[in-house]
Amino acid sequence: MKRLWVGLFLLGLALGQGLVLPFEGPQGYTLAQAFAQGLKAPPPTLLALLLPDLPWRGSYELAGGLYTKAGARLAQAATGADWVLLGREEAGGLRLFLARKGGVKEGLFPTPELGWLWLQGEGLAPRFSPLPTPSLPEERLRALAQGEDPDPLHRSALDLKEGRGSGLLEGLLPQRLLLLWQGRLPRAYEAFRLLAEGKREEALALAEAMGEGDVLERTAAHLVYRILEDERWKASARRLAEAFPELPLAWEEVSFAAFQEGKGEEAKEALLKALALRPDSWLYWTNLGWAYHLTGDLPRAIRASERAVALEPNATAYYNLGLFRAIYGDFLGAKAAYDRALRLDQGEDYPEALKDLEEREEPLALFFRAYLSERVGLPAKPLYEAFLKAHPRHPAAFAARRALAREAEAPKLSLRKLTLIPGDMDARPFRAGEAIFPEVALERRPYLPKATLTTRLYREGTLLAQEEKPLAFPPLTVALSEVAPPVIPEAPGRYLLEVAYGETALRVELEVGPPSLARKLYALGLEAKDLSGRPLLTPKEALGENGETLLLQRTRHALQEAAPLATAGSLGKPLEKGPYAGKSVREILQAPPEEAVRAFFQAVLEDPALLGENDVVNAFVNWLLGE
Which of 62, 318, 451, 578 has a 20 to 30 Å separation from 32 between CA atoms? Predict the structure, then answer.
């Protein structure tokens, strides 16, 4: 019966090139299947397998989501179908989106049957026909949509995705969709392929050619301009919004262009249009708050920012809320907003918040510049002093004085260990030529200041090396573990190692010994193993005072144990060149000279691939044969 149904279904498919996508909701597949059967469209489960992602990062989600007017229109353009129908189940009924080449329509219907009547009125469904009953249950349809137990039609879809031809899908699905899966990329996809390959000029040329194309091509062209920071992106955004007003991304981009040009009113209007399409977008509400601020409408700016953080707590909206309340003179409200922003900020947003405060003249703007600076580790004392000088009787003066009282404390700096490899065990005493990584702990209350972590190496009072590392950390940081930049003592002797953080420093005296092969191998992450794969040295032995001696002894022992196994004819022949010419590999293994083993490890240090994952026996033999 299943094969008969597929065959009968195929007979009706030649009537059109429309597509019904799976609907969103608990019964989404059965509902979509019912509409597809009535419209003589391919099974929606095929589209679950074959609907392509859009060419840009974020795919449909960047454009507002698949189950939107914009998503439906983009899906129609991406597939090349004459029309695309998709829907989603909501509390109020079934919302349908019908996209054609000329545009997209949307309707919310209390029952699927009313949606079917709407499609009859649109000239798509046969008049006076009932909505069919789905031929398969939801569970089976979902399995087919995931490629499980496929029938011949869905097997063809899986084959197409894997590059084995279109099979039963030829003539059933739009040609553009079939060609895309066969590697014949439409221009929108080709533009992003060129971007991925670094072909900037070719991508720009293709973007220019797509400037008057469909919604997919024009969106792709705009994003190419945006990615490549081509100034044409602003005009492109405005044209895109005018041509496709159902695309929230277009209005979002118009708002960005307006912000960059200082056009607060245009940004506000664009964001209101974007929010009409995506009312739950916390980003749009955040930016709308700023647009209202630019137009001087602080009450609405505050309400928009409050809506943004209710949808998704984010540092930018809280920083904005702090600024708006500070402008109003609301000390407690601004402080609460800034405190929340600081907790959410990972160290990326506060510079803009400080810049926004710098541009204001209200008393609390100066106070909160100091307040934020203190909590992100920037100098705050001059700002607090300037605030007190200008506004000694301000209600916030007590907080400024209290902050100044705790500004004198210097950060604490302590040494945890000195390592050859960051995060590894303490490796003292060090040897000449080794990189020394100091691991330190930093602490200061109330907050750790921003400063450079510096490592210096001295010998007899002379500075031999100095390395610096700027630290980045989120606001409200009071303690931090860090690896200071390494320094290298080039020769044996006594040294002084200094690690400094701002004005705070610690010093450690070092006795540096001669180089060690075992420690050099350890630092490179190379492990010497015998034929059975057992390490010849423990980490503690490798780093210890006798590491090199143990390495050479145990390597020679491993080579001697392996000598009886060297039965291949080539291993018994005298070497024709190199320092061991005239001796066979077998003879060398039987009594390996210490200088030969040492020379082998020196060669490994110059070319770590000689050892790599090999055992020392095979690596040594390969080295001898390659000499």
Answer: 62
User: β-strands 437-443, 412-419: how paired?
Assistant: antiparallel
Which phi and psi angles does 57 have, rounded to 5°?
A: -60, 135
pLDDT digits (tens, 9 = 90+) for 279-296: 999 999 999 999 999 999
- Tell which residue, 545, 490, 542, 546, has the closest CA to residue 521: 542
CA distance 88 to 94: 6
Mean pLDDT within 592-602: 94
CB atoms within 10 A of CB 60: 19
Q: Which residues of 515-544 are buried (b: 16+ CB within 10 A; e: fewer)?
A: ebbbbbbbbeebbbbbeeeeebbeeebbbb
pLDDT at residue 452 tops 80:
yes
Q: Which of 479, 480, 488, 484 is nearest to 505 (CA)?
A: 484
The number of helices, as runs of H, and strands, as runs of E, in the chain is 30, 11
* 539 Ramachandran zone, left/alpha/beta (phi>0; psi -120 to 50): alpha
Distances in Å between the alpha carbon of 350 and those of 19, 137, 242, 306, 376? 48, 54, 35, 19, 8
Rounded to two decimals, the pTM is 0.83
Exposure b/e, 582-619, CB count within 10 A at least 16 = b: ebbbbbbbeebeeebbebbbebbbeeeebbeebbbbeb
Quick check: 411 and 442 in contact, CB under 8 A? yes
Q: Are 126 and 16 in contact (CB under 8 A)?
A: no
pLDDT band at residue 5 using 50, 70 and 90 as cut-offs: very low
The token pair at 286 is: 């955040």
For 513, list phi and psi in degrees, rounded to 5: -95, -175
Helix (H) or strand (E) holding 603: helix 594-606
Count the neighbouring beta carbons within 10 Å of the beta carbon of residue 505. Answer: 12
Looking at residue 566, what is its pLDDT? 81
| Angle formed at CA 262 by CA 260 and CA 268, multiple of 5 degrees | 95
pLDDT for residue 627: 63
CA dist 612 to 58, 542, 554, 607, Å? 40, 17, 18, 9
| Secondary-structure breakdown of the chain: helix, strand, coil percentages, each rounded to the nearest 5 | 50, 15, 35
Q: 3-class SS at 263?
A: coil
The one-letter amino acid code at 373 reads S
Long-range contacts of 483-486 (CB under 8 A, 24+ apart): 483/422, 483/423, 483/437, 483/438, 483/439, 483/440, 484/437, 484/438, 484/439, 484/440, 484/453, 484/454, 484/455, 485/453, 485/454, 485/455, 486/435, 486/436, 486/437, 486/438, 486/455
Exposure class string for 391-430: b at 16+ Cβ within 10 A, else e: beebebbebbeebbeeeeeebebebeebbbeeeeeebeeb
Do 559 and 616 meet the contact criterion of CB atoms below 8 Å apart?
A: yes
CB 247 within 8 A of CB 70: yes
| Token digits of residue 443 | 């602490």
Rounded Cα distance between 420 and 458, Å, is: 19
According to DSSP, residue 168 is labeled G
Secondary structure (3-state) at 102: coil
- pLDDT value for 12: 37
376: amino acid identity, one letter: V
